[in-house]
Amino acid sequence: MLSRGEMPSVMYGFPYVDTLKVLEKFGPGATFYGFGTQEELDDLERRCENGEKYLSLFCEFPGNPLLKSPDLKRIRSIADKYEIAVVVDETIGNFLNIHVLPYADVVVSSLTKVFSGDSNVMGGTMILNPQSRYYAGLKKTLETEYEDNQFEEDSMYLERNSRDFVDRIQRINHNAGVIADVLRAHPCVKQVNYPKYSETKHHYDTCKLPDGGYGGLLSATFHSMEDAQIFYDHLDTHKGPSLGTNFTLSSPFVILAHYNELDWAAQFGCEASLIRFSVGLEDTDALKKVFEFALAAILEKNSQR
């Protein structure tokens, strides 16, 4: 806003909870397209044709926790036509798997997550696209507004932790794909959300690097809350709300993030039974057994009813 003036923004796709709340609370507000569909982009185009002005469009690639990938090519086309800055959060995909900068004016990513992996430091990054029409204005604003208050030892730990980033991503991509297949094959699992198996896979593949994979984050829903609870209670992984850790981390994401708005979240596909998994570096066969044991517990409990 300092660079371009006050205008509302667009939040496209169902995002991590804080992103939408910040856009709604600060500044002139935001139009929320929570399904991330082509029809919603049609609606955005109609609004723009009718004279509505937008500062920026925010999206995640892919989204958290549904792992849907937005159509960045079409978003870029709309943004160019109607002068909307595009901000893409690529934390979940990460820049070793995907390359989204050609479609964005600004790319943001959390360095706290898989870039570090060790869960002992926090950081983030923002990249301005030098080819963007907004580059000069944004850079000038940052030169006067940005404060470098990064703690020196945090920078040291980020650099140290990132030295094996390439190797870790390859292993995490592989493990996550295996776990996605285990979950997809089980009758007690209602839906598995993972970029490789999403209806938006073709959008992800547009940005996927030749040696890239589909990332380490996935989620699953179950046919009942009771099944989800049995599975979660028998799942022998670390439990917590973060992601990108070197160890597998599981959480009842919707319960944690949207406890006071469960019906609202459900209308966008974020059901209360959703469990999110950030897959780590464990031995693949050992990790499979952990998930298979938890899935088997559902069938065992159901057989006793």
TrEMBL record:
<dbReference type="InterPro" id="IPR015422">
    <property type="entry name" value="PyrdxlP-dep_Trfase_small"/>
</dbReference>
<dbReference type="GO" id="GO:0003962">
    <property type="term" value="F:cystathionine gamma-synthase activity"/>
</dbReference>
<dbReference type="GO" id="GO:0019346">
    <property type="term" value="P:transsulfuration"/>
</dbReference>
<dbReference type="InterPro" id="IPR015424">
    <property type="entry name" value="PyrdxlP-dep_Trfase"/>
</dbReference>
<dbReference type="InterPro" id="IPR000277">
    <property type="entry name" value="Cys/Met-Metab_PyrdxlP-dep_enz"/>
</dbReference>
<comment type="pathway">
    <text>Amino-acid biosynthesis; L-methionine biosynthesis via de novo pathway.</text>
</comment>
<dbReference type="InterPro" id="IPR051750">
    <property type="entry name" value="Trans-sulfuration_enzymes"/>
</dbReference>
<comment type="similarity">
    <text>Belongs to the trans-sulfuration enzymes family. MET7 subfamily.</text>
</comment>
<dbReference type="InterPro" id="IPR015421">
    <property type="entry name" value="PyrdxlP-dep_Trfase_major"/>
</dbReference>
<dbReference type="GO" id="GO:0030170">
    <property type="term" value="F:pyridoxal phosphate binding"/>
</dbReference>
<protein>
    <recommendedName>
        <fullName>Cystathionine gamma-synthase</fullName>
    </recommendedName>
</protein>
<keyword id="KW-0663">Pyridoxal phosphate</keyword>
<dbReference type="Pfam" id="PF01053">
    <property type="entry name" value="Cys_Met_Meta_PP"/>
</dbReference>
